[in-house]
Amino acid sequence: MDFVDYYKTLGVDKNANTEDIKKAYRKLARKHHPDLNPNDKEAHKKFQQINEANEVLSDPEKRKKYDQYGKDWQHADQFEKARQQQGQQGFSGGYTYSGEGDEDFSDFFESLFGRSSGRGRSSQTKFRGQDYNAELRLALTDAYETHKQTLTVNGKNVRITIPAGVENGQVIKLKGYGAPGVNGGPNGDLYITFSITNNTKFRRMGNDLHTSVDLDLYTAILGGEITIDTLSGKVKLKVKPETQNGSKIKLKGKGFPVYKKEGEYGDLYITYNILLPVNLTEKQKELFRELAKS
Q1: CA 23 to mean position of chain CA atoms
Q2: For the chain, how big is the Rg over CA atoms in Å?
Q3: What pairs with residue 248 in β-bridges?
Q4: Per-residue pLDDT tens over the stretch 177-207
Q5: Could you tell me whether strands 208-216 and 203-205 are parallel, antiparallel, or unpaired per DSSP bridges?
Q6: 93 pLDDT band (50/70/90 cuts)?
Q7: Residue-number span of the structural domain to which 148 is assigned
Q8: 249, pLDDT greater than 80
Q9: What backbone phi and psi angles, to 5 degrees, belong to 288?
């Protein structure tokens, strides 16, 4: 794995404090954000690099490991554990392994554990790759249907199927899509966090949807039929006579899909908002006066 200078990525000095790092990250994130550069692949790649650098340098513990171990910082705990085990077992030399033909073996391993051969058998410590984290932005209407989408993670395109019903802030794991393991160790995993923007007039609460519908006074009093929009299309509703302002009705199964449960949906709750007539003529006002007297 090539060394990535996170300080250089954010354009800050190695002695930069937390506030300096935060300011640099925000400035670069705004500049290279995918929403502002929709057709610029380089900007998208740069945005991911900026996020990765900020994730490490803004975390004191991760930054300490990065400063100490460089490109192998994510294996710091494993290195320390290996060293402690060697000390407990009384090893005076470095870590024993056979590295013949292993051109990709990190120089850091060599300096830390040394290089030698065992008694006729080769041994090599395997380390699991680093986990990756990514954010995927969706509109609420996108989350309503199962669909495929391609995202770029660490320069690689990953095509995933997004099940209908995912929620804002939900995290899913793609096993083995993280960083490659060291010395044949397993790959890390990819964790995707969904950020869902509501682009509808509906308010989502779990699998249920809520909305309000304007109703004219005459329909509210006399009853009638109206047509409303749902996420699955238009629906005709019968309005009962003498419907009160603020009254609610439920449309079963017209809510949001239940995550990973084919054919199951929440409900749609409608609150009626009765509109009073305006700009009445004298004749209309007189009719209301007569009603008031009766």
Answers
A1: 23
A2: 30
A3: 271
A4: 988 888 888 999 999 999 999 999 999 999 9
A5: antiparallel
A6: very low
A7: 127-199
A8: yes
A9: -70, -35
